[in-house]
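Weekly sync, protein design subgroup
Attendees: M.S., D.O., the rotation student, P.L. (late)

Item 1: inverse folding check
M.S. brought a backbone from last month's batch and wanted to see whether the design step gives back something sensible before we order anything. D.O. pointed out we never logged the input encoding, so this time it goes straight into the notes. Structure tokens as presented (225 positions):
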């Protein structure tokens, strides 16, 4: 990656979910810098720093999705923290047969846009309120606030994606609804300020990534169908 490409990646256009935060940060900065008092001027500086952080956190770089309908793509940027055989979430109405699950942990420095792993139809959506333990822990998949969706492909096979809030995350955004047609690599939501995204593969499909590997949402191939 060239220096220019790296620069564009870091300063890429922010997702629209950032607008309220950027607006609040800029307003605080303007008010603070426009007054003569030391405390409010310090508040103005904090507003500028917060605005800069939001521009970085909510960045939404362009991704280049492989033109291959026989692969499952990473649903998020981040680091693979676990790969294990487990049953899909019961509330998504999928088979209880254990399948491979790939868990990706997103730090506050990662791009937080979630992307669709396979093309198909959203056939189930399930949200659960919960706690906010460290998203890198195994128990986060059961205890934390989370939102799951099931995508049924044209051949009937299903892939599940679960957005899991993290230690400081307090808002899961999902922009798809049951019955909606989705395309691999397209954006479908995000989780604010640190999180985890789990992908459940179809029965019999094995992941081709490794624990500790860095994922690029919408580009990295998790498995081949």
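Designed sequence read out in the meeting:
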């Amino acid at each position: 990656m060239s220096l220019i490409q790296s620069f564009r990646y870091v300063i890429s256009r922010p997702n629209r979910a950032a607008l309220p935060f950027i607006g609040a940060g800029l307003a605080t900065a303007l008010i603070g810098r426009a007054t003569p008092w030391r405390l409010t001027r310090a508040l103005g500086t904090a507003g500028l720093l917060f605005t800069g952080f939001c521009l970085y956190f909510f960045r939404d770089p362009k991704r280049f999705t492989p033109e291959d309908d026989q692969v499952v793509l990473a649903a998020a940027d981040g680091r693979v923290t676990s790969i294990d055989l487990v049953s899909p979430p019961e509330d998504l109405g999928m088979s209880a047969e254990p399948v491979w699950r790939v868990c990706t942990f997103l730090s506050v420095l990662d791009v937080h846009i979630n992307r669709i792993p396979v093309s198909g139809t959203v056939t189930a959506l399930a949200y659960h309120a919960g706690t906010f333990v460290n998203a890198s822990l195994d128990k986060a998949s059961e205890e934390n606030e989370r939102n799951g969706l099931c995508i049924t492909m044209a051949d009937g096979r299903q892939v599940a994606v679960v957005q899991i809030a993290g230690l400081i995350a307090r808002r899961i955004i999902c922009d798809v609804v049951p019955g909606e047609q989705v395309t691999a690599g397209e954006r479908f939501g995000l989780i604010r300020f640190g999180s985890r995204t789990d992908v459940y593969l179809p029965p019999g499909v094995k992941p081709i990534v490794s624990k500790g590997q860095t994922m690029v949402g919408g580009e990295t191939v998790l498995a081949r169908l």
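Discussion: Residues 38-57 form the longest helix (20 residues). The mean pLDDT is 85.
Action: P.L. to compare against the previous round before Friday.
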